[in-house]
Amino acid sequence: MICENCKQRPATVTITMTKNNEEVVKHYCEVCSGQQDYLHIDEEVKPVTIEQIFSDWFGIPTWSSNAPQSKQPPQEKQQCETCGMTYQQFLKEGKFNCPNCYHAFYERLPEVFKRLHNGATEHTGKIPGGLNKTYQIKKEIEVLRQKMKSAVEQEEFEEAAKLRDEVKQLEKQLTQGGAANDEN
Fold first, then answer.
1. Sequence ranges of the domains in the chain
2. Could you identify which of 74, 117, 119, 128 might form a hypothetical disulfide with 34, taking C-beta atoms 3.0 to 4.6 angstroms apart as the criterion?
3. What pTM value is reported for the model?
């Protein structure tokens, strides 16, 4: 199958969209799929809440009164200082009221993401070809920085210095346009 946009390369990415209750399937190559011009978002469509997603998956709204009640003790009322939204309201509505809500509920978001993404807190899907190597280098830098922080906390300064040098080398690769000399 050939890309519907450039009509030159083989289509490797399939995008399925629903518009006016009609399913539209598009096939793009890796290059064209990375261009945001072809992914139009209909602004008239209201966002889907987490509750609606769970309702579709399991047949009942997860946070409704019909859902099975958990046996955990009630947690303290945590709320956003800016808009007053509580964590329970966020779970029910599935979206935040203001940008400060992200900061207010930051510590509890990983548990929500794990439930939504089958235990994962990070995206693990495919990345269009041109972005893949850059993304891998950035992820490696992030991991090395976490190890470096841990080494400093444990007062292993020689190990931290080695990790710092590795980070600098990877950052240099990024600024020079990707993985010129991959040393892994």
1. 78-126, 129-175
2. 128
3. 0.33
